Known about the structure:
67% helix; 39 helices; Serine Threonine Protein Phosphatase 5, Tetratricopeptide repeat
Amino acid sequence: MKAVKGPTYPTGSPRSGQPETARRLRTYTRTGALAAVAALLLQAPLPAAASAEPLCDWLSGIGDAAQALAEGRAEDSEHAARQALAARPRAAAGARAEAALGLALAARGVPADAAAALELALAPSTAPARAHLSFLRAEALLASGAAPQAAALFAAAAAAPELAIARRARFREADALLAAGLAAEAVPALEHLLEAWPTDPAAPAARLALAAGRRALGDEAGAAEAYRALWLDADLPEARIAGAALASWRAAGGPVPPATADEHLVRADRLLAVGRPEEALTEVAEAREAEEAPAASGRAEALRAVALLALGQAGEAEQAAAPLAGDLDEGVRRTARWVLARAEARDGRLDEASRRYAEVAASGAPIAGLPAWRQRDVGDESAFLSAWLWYDAGQFAHAAETLAAFARQHPSSRRAEDALWFAAWSRYRLGDGPQAAQAFARLAHGPLVDAATYWQGRLARGARQRALYRAAAAVGGDGWYGLLARARLAALGERAPRPPVPPARPLPEAPEARASVRLSVAVEVLALGLEDLGLDELRDLARSARARPAAPLVAQLAAFAGDPELPFRMARDHLGPTRRSLRWAHPSPRPEVLAAGSRAFGIDPSLVLAVMRRESSFRPGVRSGAGAEGLMQLRPATAERLAALLGVPGGVGARLGDPGVSLELGAHYLGLLVARFGSPAVGVAAYNAGPRFAAEWARERAGMPLDAWVESIPFRETRLYVKIVLADWDVYRGLAGEDTAPIEPDRSVEPPADGVAF
């Protein structure tokens, strides 16, 4: 972690005055510096005759304790806290040292001693982090068996409803009531919390607690219902616990009937929606063995077909779906036709696939196994694919007609501009320059102005070509077409610098009072070494109506705490272009891991950052609908195969939420792909779509210039992904003071070499 220089004060200042204080502050890293500065500002001026040495010892102890706690070194944190307490054992300074000691003892697993220290820390009534200290003392009391007292303290922490900690405290108060044997109080509290905040991160654990509470009250039917509802939410870790609880209760003779076929199919549907087709197939098999399976056979087969398609077994998926294409159930029928359309398209049967997609577009029934956002889009997507398939197959004359017809018939579709683009591009691929130029010109006044202007330039010659490239560079900015246009101008001998860096601007004054209070609480919590809780407060403020005026300060504080995701989100959603917001929008998490991993795997660190930015937006715990996890969005199976190549122990697939694990494996995988395909652009396409598809595209379109090859990527998501990642690569290189990303638009794409194929 990069060292942060602490502030110094003018000679003679009653708060410092001693070079030793400033010297010690300069040695701290982020958390330690924040702790020491926050603590220093909270202290009263020293009496003129007092020695500054105890203050120095106290400050260094506070800073060291917070830093060690943030880094997971609990024993070192305890030692430093005791040093601070010995230096200043009374009043506010002593309470602050007791807080540091209590947190260290809790981290060491000594909850009773931690609770005692935190009780002393709570003696002053004005500490900004009082609610958090109450919450943490309650946790210590609960861990030491004092559940009733813990419940009372959780309630006290919940009495500050404007803070993020309050909701967490309410959930934990119910847990403490249950642990105290007060199920009659805990159950209604849990029911209220789950009704008010059903999607809170604490809700799944609360649902388990609710089931246990109902069972303790003798409400066996209610308990079984709660366990079963949680088990049906198949993607949650708590769902497995609920399933195990139902199974053991049933085995003990409890009133728990076996799961029905319909329930297994509900689980299969939800597993497919979150990208877990293997587990979905298991649930389908369980459903087919249930007593009432014949009544659910059509739905089961439809889900099985979707799962097989997701696993890449298109032939088997088609066999399962074909008998269902005329099913009486409209949902089963539409699902089967959607599977058949995709399988037929992959097999090159365009007439059949186009007809199937048109049938899917004409229906509004839900398709099994698709998440909600795909359900909303699948009709429009299918209508577009019915026209676009001809382009993908290289039948450009027919594609130009069908895509133009789609745009006329669906003018409000979000794919209408795409259809016009591919109609124009079909003319380009046909070699019909005049028609293509006219089609691009018609797009030069809408959202595709940068692309249309660039490709007009590709078709022009002489002075007009240079003028169009300059225009594309201007409107394209730091995006893909701006990058391509600058590369083209450079190849013509014309200097084409990157867009200028936005001007520097000072941070604004503190926003309105309530946001200022939230920020001061976050500062104090971070200064205690409680990075997760401090960032929770900042994230909660960022989600509120006060987010926009507070955004620069939220971003600055989160960046100082070492968090990349929140500054990125503030810059993206709320801030205009400045030098500072450009850096926030392009953070560099875990630089020590990134630099070492990238060098080891022969990949540019800036390219890894660009991939990470697109994959996860710097959220380490995010999980995609395809089952990819972590900062670099790897599937667990891919991670395990990479671990085998690296010669490291297995089990990494379960640790992709660890930023270091995800970053190292992702950099290695990206390096393997770029080495195989010989081009960052093709390697990035393989990272998104998989090496099998990228190899197919590189083989079929070998010899095509890079800019045209990227436009020809069949998958819309991958095509956009490649453009965004490569443009971000150049931005990251610019921020690092490096040359322009080595993108050569005219370089021919080569056939793939042997290499990684998973």
